[in-house]
Sequence to fold (71 residues):
Amino acid sequence: SGLVVGQITSDANGYAKLGGLLSDDYMLREVTPPVGYSPAKDIDVLATEFDAETKTVKRQLSISRLKHQFQ
Fold:
């Protein structure tokens, strides 16, 4: 539906979490990559991926340096 359900900001080690979500389908989108990096690809999280016991899903983003920087 395109509804924003939360915003995640990573710490100095790149770790971030978002709680209080229902077991549903979501998309993670990096809005502001670190300076000199290109945005990570969107990540789909499906309701079926939530652990039934812990109610969690873990994901790792891969980011890459820009090949060209423009001023």
About this structure: The chain has a mean pLDDT of 81. The two ends are 36 Å apart (CA to CA). The longest strand covers residues 26-28.
